[in-house]
Amino acid sequence: MNVAQTVVSAREAATALPRPMAFVPTMGALHAGHLRLIEAARKDARSIVVSAFVNPLQFGAGEDLERYPRDVEGDLQKLIGADVDLAFIPSTHGMYGAEYSTFVDVGAIASTYEGAVRPTHFRGVATVVLKLLHIIAPDVVVLGQKDAQQTAVLRKMVRELDVPVRVAIVPTVREDDGLALSSRNAYLSRVQRAAASSLYRALCAMAASLREGVGAPQARQDAMRILQSPGEWDYLDVVDMENFLPLQSLQEPAFVIGAARFGDTRLIDNLMFPSPGVA
Ligand code: AMP
């Protein structure tokens, strides 16, 4: 596996790879969810590039940028094991230099739900992903359904800025009790971890009610009771898959989305209707 640490060497190495080439952007601390994205990428690509970069632009003041888990050595071993062709592990300075000031603003879709709680988050995500797409120039970029609003933001960015890449969405990988795999699960105490899977159960209950024809307000109210202490809701809703506006009932394509806090740790999860095929 080739490892590039600079923009120039990543671009050079990516250019030499066989096509079609798939790209999986990550923040590192790789887990089985990330590896599933790589596996899915392999299906219709002849080469695979993975980036691991904890992107400061997508963290707000007071968020977990400093304590976000980092494990470059472990990541490289996993990427070698997954037969990845190129790992791009840039430095913050290499990506943004000294006085960075150019941002991608995708508009209203970035200001609700995750964007309401984290006002500069999607601007940071869109900016780094557009930069990475320019550097790597893949044929397909592979994203996890786990970050539902992120998939909507990035699909809109790709469409509206005419980025010549296909966006593939891969279903969420879960623990046995339903908790979605996330690098942030490592922050949970035993008690919080035991309660955390109730977020998934609440999403399932909300989806089941919606499918029975119950309206969104009632379905939400019933499902919210399922969250176990010490979990506290940020939001639970059903939204249009494209624009992330709330729906009054389940009209596909849609996401049932939820976010809850367990102590200092925020977890997000969703169910997608119709459910995504593997990329
Ligand atoms: P992250 O490193 O958290 O920025 O995630 C990198 C990519 O992996 C994103 O496209 C995520 O949506 C995806 N991802 C994270 N967790 C999971 C999971 N449990 N299942 C599938 N994909 C995931």
Description of the structure:
The radius of gyration is 19 Å and the shape is globular. The mean pLDDT is 97. It is built from 10 helices and 9 strands. Helices cover 35% and strands 20% of the residues. It has a 6-stranded parallel sheet with strand order 1-4-3-2-5-6, with helices on both faces. Helix 6 (121-136) crosses helix 7. The chain has 279 residues and is of the alpha/beta class. The protein binds adenosine monophosphate (AMP).
Compose a concise summary of this entry.
With 279 residues, this protein is of the alpha/beta class. The protein contains ten helices and nine strands.
Quick tags:
six-stranded parallel beta sheet; three-stranded antiparallel beta sheet; 9 strands; single chain; binds adenosine monophosphate; 279 residues; 10 helices; alpha/beta
